[in-house]
User: What shape does this take?
Amino acid sequence: MSSTYLARRIFTLATTLIVVAMATFLAFEVIPGDPVLTMLGPDADPALIAAMREELGTELPPAARLARWTRGVLTGDLGTSIRYARPVSALILDRVAVSLSIALLAMGAVVVIAVPLGIVLAVRRSHWSEPVISATIQVGMAIPSFWLGIILISVFSLSLGLFPTGGYVPFEAGIAASIRSVTLPSIAIAIPLIAVVVRYTRNSMIDQFSHDYVRTAFSKGFPVRHVLYRHVLRNASLPVITVLGMIFANVVVGTIIIEQVFALPGLGLLLVTAVSARDFPLIQGLVLYITFFVTLFNLLVDIAYHVVDPRVELT
Amino acid sequence: MSGAPSTRVSLLEVRDLRTWFGPEATPVRAVDGVSFTLERRQTVAIVGESGCGKSVTGLSLMGLVPAGGRIAGGAVRLDGTDLIGLDHGEMTRIRGRRLSMVFQEPMTSLNPLMTVGEQIEEMLRYHLSLSRRQAVERSVELLDAVGFSRPKRLLGEYPHRLSGGMRQRVMIAMALSCEPELLIADEPTTALDVTIQAQVLELLRRLAAQVDTAVLLITHDLAVVSEVADHVYVMYAGLVVESAPTRVLFSKPLHPYTQGLLACVTSISESKRRLRPIRGTVPPPDALPPGCRFAPRCPHAFARCPSAVPGLVEVEAGHQVRCYLHPGGTA
Ligand SMILES: Nc1ncnc2c1ncn2[C@@H]1O[C@H](COP(=O)(O)OP(=O)(O)O)[C@@H](O)[C@H]1O
Ligand SMILES: [Mg+2]
Assistant: This one.
């Protein structure tokens, strides 16, 4: 991997952030709604409304507002939330741990469960199990996370009492309790994605079996296990790595929804509040943050792909 | 060995091998009763146009029949042991060590994600229990033997950086690394540039001779055979149609198909104008003509040919032919 590659990828990352910021800005220019009126109510004192507008700069023309916001971002200042009257970065930092732990736990569950399961299902194929497996996968992919979340709460929290019904326990209050507080939401996000990745892994393995190099490996006198784990697996992992990269975006979207179900004070909950309050600086800040994580993860996936596949030159 | 020839077991004895594809009721008979014999250190060739069932024959010997195919009958005796009766584990222990194969497709036969070194070393370490260092040393020797000028550097290369000829030489080094008793070389030079075909073939022959490995050379090109093989089996549509010591086959070809193949070869060396390919193509095994399978393309076909498949007849010691023009012997 060359330094030009890294420079190019960082440039791409920056471009993505700019485009996403512009798109969000434009979207909120077009859709109706006024943050000041939303906050103070339509019957508020006109003088108060005017004063607040003056302070927030919502009366400025769009170009001027965008310029003001961009200048802030470039100096590391994401602005101040209208709804909460606090710096956007402080609001995000308060909540990022919640969302990140859900997302990483969900991603981890997908990798740890789906990949081995996909391998096993590819190796132990039989005629009768084929339709059962594909039906199960279809159903798994179609289940909405929020519904899964509700089911998980009613079974594991209400009936069995194994997990809290909601709320977040920070790391400082104990790692075990903290992980327990995000376990069910992570599972709810992970299950449909596990179905997707199981299918990918299984198909990718089966596809590899028919390649000539597999025949060569058998002709060299290796047992099935050796051929499978030393030869097929590495080749089969390439499309799986790609799909894991794509799935991270789904995980992030999943956290936004699941935080509502479990009343978790993460970025998702913050984003929903910000949107309904037309809290433009907060929305922009959150969108930037989320885009940054997704793009960064994709960069890591690209690098992982390169580590496995020498044919891809990262130049 | 001092035993009489009659009691000696041949290295490889294939009897009435049948490899069929597709449904049980209407099988596609890609290999339909092929027999041949190979002695130790011998080079025997199987010759025939594309689609005759040569590759399927080779893969059947290795126990690597492609998915959808099965060995429907016959025997493959390696040093007296019938390989067809062996279970998966027993066959695995024979592959690589006693029996190895170089495939027709050099571009896709190596693992694209493993270095050349890894692919040779794993073989040496697995079968010969060499240490890592010994395996590296031996790999360098092997790569040197197949003509690489910088074998050490090659160890770290991935296949996609090598040409077809280089990949095939790596395959040859790998296939001979455990000094097997028999190497099956399935059109080892067909996919290669004409300029290096002879070179790779010569290399294969020399190295096999060095480690006392017998070679079953599969090819569609009779020209290749004359230099290398001791004995030739000519295959057509899943059957052996003629078998003879190489010199005899070239001087006295009996089957019209063999004569047709030879006409192509000699005319190339003499003059381009006399190039006479056999008209038509090999019938696919699911659409075989009645009787002699070559009859529809045969310049000498007569009334009897479509009646039934002619038997393989011994016309003189070691020379057999399957044709109604030569009804001698015991049909
Ligand atoms: N994987 C397969 N599935 C079905 N039929 C096959 C397969 N491989 C080979 N055959 C059949 O066997 C015939 C002979 O194939 P092959 O042995 O590859 O010919 P050759 O090597 O002489 O060119 C083919 O014409 C085809 O009909
Ligand atoms: Mg072939």
